[in-house]
Write a structure and sequence with these properties.
The chain is mainly beta. The chain contains three helices and 17 strands.
C-alpha cells in the first residue's frame, strides 16, 4: 500500500476534528485573600462554532451505572468543555428553573439573587438574561439555567455583592458579541470578582460586557478536552445537580437527559 504524503495525512487528521474548536487558557488574577494571585482557567469559544448544552444528574443512578459527575457529563455529550451549573438545595433540587434539551426541572424562582440571572439558548442563539425580565410563559428555550448573581452588566461591576467569603467560583462571560467563556476561579469573593472583571485588561481574553455567577464552593469544577485528546479536569468536591457544557455544533445533540 502506497504511503500517504505527510501533507495529505495531516489534512485527514484535521478533518476528523470538530471544526473551529475553542481553547483552554490560564492566567493569573489577584483575587485570593490578601490580593494574592490565583490561577484562572477559562475555556473560550465562538458561539458561531460551538454552543451550550445543559445536562442534569439523575436523581437516582441506575444499578451498575457510573455516577454522573462533570467529567462523565462532558464525555457523554462529546463536549469541548464543561463547568458546574446552578444552585441546588440540600435535597439536590435546583433553586430555580433548569431546562436540559427541552426538558424542565425545578421551577421559576424570582425571590433570590442566586436565581436572578439566566443562561439561555433559544434556537441558535445564546444569551445571559435577567430572570425578572424574561417571558417564561411564551419563550421556548431548549437549554436554560437559572442562577446568579450577575457580576458584570454593561461592562460595569455590580455593587453590594458579598465581600468576605472566599471560595471557588464558576462564571460564564461574554463580550456582547460572539465571544464567550466559562471560567473557574480558585479563590475569590463575589464583590472582588465583580470589581476585578470590570477593569480593562484584567480578564485577559476579552473585556466582559456581561458576567454571571454559577454555583461555586465545593461544587465548582472545570473540565476541558485539550489537543491530542488530553483531558484537563479540576474535579468538583461535592456532587453537582446540573452541568453547563460547551459542545461543537457538529456534534450537538441531546445525548444527556434527566
Amino acid at each position: 500500500m502506497k504511503a500517504l504524503r505527510p501533507s495529505l495525512l495531516l489534512l485527514l487528521l484535521l478533518s476528523a476534528l470538530p471544526a473551529a474548536a475553542g481553547q483552554h487558557e490560564r492566567f493569573e488574577m489577584p483575587l485570593a485573600p490578601g490580593g494574592r494571585a490565583a490561577t484562572v482557567h477559562v475555556y473560550l469559544f465562538d458561539d458561531r462554532d460551538e454552543t451550550l448544552q445543559v445536562a442534569i444528574r439523575p436523581e437516582k443512578e441506575k444499578e451498575g451505572e457510573t455516577p454522573m459527575d462533570l467529567g462523565k457529563a462532558c464525555s457523554d455529550a462529546r463536549a469541548s468543555a464543561g463547568i458546574n451549573g446552578g444552585f441546588f438545595d440540600y435535597l439536590g433540587e435546583p433553586l430555580g428553573l433548569v431546562i436540559a434539551s427541552g426538558t424542565p426541572t425545578g421551577k421559576v424562582n424570582l425571590s433570590s439573587t442566586l436565581t436572578s440571572g439566566l443562561v439561555v439558548r433559544e434556537g441558535d442563539g445564546l444569551s445571559l438574561r435577567k430572570a425578572k425580565e424574561y417571558d417564561f410563559a411564551t419563550a421556548k428555550p431548549s437549554q436554560l439555567i437559572q442562577t446568579g448573581p450577575f457580576l458584570v452588566e454593561e461592562s460595569k461591576g455590580l455593587v453590594d455583592l458579598q465581600p468576605s467569603r472566599f471560595a471557588r467560583r464558576s462564571v460564564i462571560l461574554t463580550d456582547g458579541g460572539h465571544r464567550w467563556a466559562i471560567a473557574f476561579f480558585p479563590s475569590a469573593t463575589l464583590d472582588g470578582l465583580a470589581k476585578a472583571l470590570e477593569k480593562p485588561g484584567a480578564f485577559k481574553p476579552f473585556q466582559p460586557r456581561t458576567a454571571l455567577n454559577l454555583d461555586g464552593g465545593s461544587s465548582c469544577g472545570f473540565w476541558t478536552l485539550r489537543p491530542g485528546g488530553y483531558v484537563f479536569y479540576l474535579k468538583e468536591i461535592s456532587k453537582v445537580r446540573d452541568f453547563l457544557l460547551v459542545v461543537p455544533k457538529a456534534v450537538d445533540q441531546p445525548l444527556i437527559k434527566p
